[in-house]
Amino acid sequence: MRNHLATRVLAVVALGAIALTALACGSASGSAGPVQTNEVTMPKSYRFSPETIEVAVRATVTWRNQDNFTHSVKLRDGGEPDHIVKPGESVSITFSRPGTYAYECSLHPQNMRGTVIVTDAPPAGG
């Protein structure tokens, strides 16, 4: 009887942990659309946050590495060199033409991808 109770308690704890993990993963991917900002962080989770941003033409976007590992910012169109960003460092890129710019961490491309949407007009509210 005692082992049965312990097994049930462990099962409830495990299900709770799975539910919390699923909830956290769901909110991290976010599909609410682009965020109007020129700051992107690389938090301790192998991702860019926010993943998709929107800026006005001629804006400078800064990526800050807050992780314990080196990452990079590489525009997928090849328009910029691969910018290596060590922990605690940052890199900035100025976008002089409107368009949609996909980027990734060349060291972790399977996990770390993002998009910068550059518009002709200032973002709404700005």
SSE arrangement:
Elements (H helix, E strand, L loop, with lengths): L1 H28 L5 E2 L2 E4 L9 E5 L2 E7 L5 E5 L7 E3 L4 E6 L3 E6 L8 E7 L7
Parallel strand pairs: 1-3, 2-4, 3-9
Antiparallel strand pairs: 4-7, 5-6, 5-8, 8-9
Question: Would you write up a description of this structure?
Answer:
The chain has 2 domains: 1-30; 32-119, Sandwich (Immunoglobulin-like), CATH 2.60.40. The protein contains 1 helix and 9 strands; from the N terminus they run H-E-E-E-E-E-E-E-E-E. The protein has one helix spanning 2-29; strands at 35-36, 39-42, 52-56, 59-65, 71-75, 83-85, 90-95, 99-104, 113-119. Strand 8 (99-104) and strand 9 form a beta hairpin. Strands 1-3-9-8-5-6 form a 6-stranded mixed β-sheet, with no helix packed on it. The chain has a 3-stranded mixed β-sheet with strand order 2-4-7, with no helix packed on it. Helices cover 22% and strands 36% of the residues. The protein is globular and about 35 Å long. It is of the alpha/beta class and 126 residues long. The termini are far apart.
CATH fold-level assignment of the largest domain: Immunoglobulin-like
CATH homologous superfamily caption of the largest domain: Cupredoxins -  blue copper proteins
Low-confidence stretches: 9-30
Q: What's the overall average pLDDT, rounded?
A: 81
Number of strands: 9
Distance between the termini: 65 Å
Amount of beta strand: 35-45%
Count of structural domains = 2
Q: Strand order, main sheet: write it out.
A: 1-3-9-8-5-6
Total helical segments: 1
User: Would you list the SSEs in sequence order as H and E?
Assistant: HEEEEEEEEE
CATH class of the largest domain: Mainly Beta
Biggest beta sheet attributes: 6 strands, mixed
Helicity range:
10-25%
Q: How large is the radius of gyration?
A: 19 Å
Structural class label? alpha/beta
CATH architecture of the largest domain: Sandwich
